[in-house]
# Entry
Amino acid sequence: MAKIGIIVALNCELEMYLKDFDAKPTDFDGIFRGYYASHEIYLTLCGVGKVNAAVCAQRIFDMAKVDAVINSGVAGGVSKNLGICDLAISDKLTYHDFYPLDLLDKYAPGISVFTADSFLIKLAKDSADTLISSGEDFKYEIGTIVSGDMFVEDDAYKAKLSEKFGAVCTEMEGTAIAHAAFLNKVPFVVIRAISDNADSKADMTFEQMAEIAAKRACLIVEKMIENY
# Structure
């Protein structure tokens, strides 16, 4: 039995997992424990943004001593290959709003691009393939996810994220969780369903699609845990 941490940013995401894992509060404020496919699951709601995400990641590492952590949620699509409710699986993560980014290479932690765990990436890919073959209608792409403390809703900035980073999507927490996981030597992966296109219509699309997209990410993560 593994101990797996799941970190989400939105209440609708947390509620899905609490129900599916029959998770209950622990002695640690804001951390819930449930069981799924013979594994012990620790859930926490970090809220929006990098600081919230890093603090919650450190708490779940310290208190639950998890064997791996998954950040599940929604994101703005950058890749032309992904549409609404399609899936992005991280192989690498970095910050798009840290300037100059190479300061992280020059000083501690000596790295600015965080590489997801290869086993967890394969688990996510195989889980997506299984769901697609069973009739779920979506595409997925494995690639670079970029994070920053901004909701991207600008076509020009979206183009910059594609050109500079080759990003598949953009969000606000994943890289901070990856950063904390790297420092704590905890395997990680980020799974994001596309809720909007990070363009001038992003705000309206996000409000309409966030919960539906979050459910798609939840399905993938649950399949991953079944096969862990």
About this structure: The longest strand covers residues 68-77. Helices lie at 11-20, 50-64, 103-106, 118-133, 155-165, 174-184, 202-227. DSSP finds seven helices and ten strands in the chain.
